[in-house]
Structure formats: structure tokens, C-alpha cells
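A reminder from the course coordinator: this example appears on the midterm review sheet, so study it carefully.

Given structure:
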């Protein structure tokens, strides 16, 4: 059984890292200072969901670790998973808010300067 737990830990660890970094990368890729646009809501939601799924996979890693330690006390697997999920949220729960912070960044607006240049400076000449 412990061999399977090791394989599950490796697979879920790679999956967790991939999901978290993909979620952060998707929202960071849309953060372009040259376009002066906000990140779309759809991209923010997808990024946040990917990060949450990554944290759930990380909880599987800690569940497998705790399962090998706590086998003598006969806890159920669901109880161990929820305890591991709580631990994962306490340690890395802030990562969920990174795509939301990218969305809240207000790009500096250079377009206002362009609009001001097109308005004539002396209206009395007409």
C-alpha cells in the first residue's frame, strides 16, 4: 500500500504544481502594460479555479503523508483529507488571491494624454 501512496504523492505533486503555475501564468500573461486593459473576468475565474484545484491536489499529498503516520489510530480517509485540506489552506491559501490581485491592478492610462492632445488648445479660433 505504501508504494501506491508514493506514486499518488508524486502524481498529485506534479499535478498540483502544474495547476497552480498554470493558473498564475494565465492571469500574468494577460497583464500587459502596453495595452492598458484590465484582465478579463473569464480569465480571472479560470485562473482562480486552476489554483484551487492545485491546492486540492496538494491536500492529497499531505493526506498520503498523514495516512502513513496515522494508520494506528484508525482515522477515516475523509477525515484525514479534510484535515490535510485545512492545513493546505492555512499554508498556501493566499495563492488563490493572486489572480484576483492581477485583476485589480489598474493599468496606467496613457490614453488620457492622447485624448488631451487631440482637443484644440484655443477654442476662440473657430
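Designed residues:
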Amino acid at each position: 500500500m505504501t508504494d501506491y501512496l508514493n506514486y499518488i504523492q508524486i502524481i498529485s505533486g506534479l499535478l498540483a504544481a502544474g495547476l497552480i503555475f498554470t493558473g498564475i501564468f494565465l492571469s500574468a500573461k494577460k497583464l500587459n502594460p502596453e495595452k492598458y486593459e484590465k484582465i478579463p473576468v473569464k480569465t480571472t475565474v479560470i485562473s482562480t479555479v486552476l489554483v484551487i484545484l492545485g491546492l486540492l491536489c496538494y491536500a492529497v499529498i499531505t493526506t498520503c503523508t498523514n495516512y502513513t503516520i496515522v494508520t494506528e489510530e484508525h482515522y477515516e480517509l475523509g477525515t484525514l483529507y479534510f484535515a490535510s485540506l485545512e492545513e493546505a489552506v492555512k499554508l498556501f491559501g493566499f495563492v488563490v488571491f493572486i489572480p484576483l490581485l492581477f485583476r485589480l491592478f489598474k493599468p496606467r492610462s496613457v490614453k488620457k494624454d492622447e485624448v488631451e492632445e487631440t482637443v484644440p488648445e484655443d477654442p476662440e479660433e473657430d
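The mean pLDDT is 81. The radius of gyration is 23 Å.
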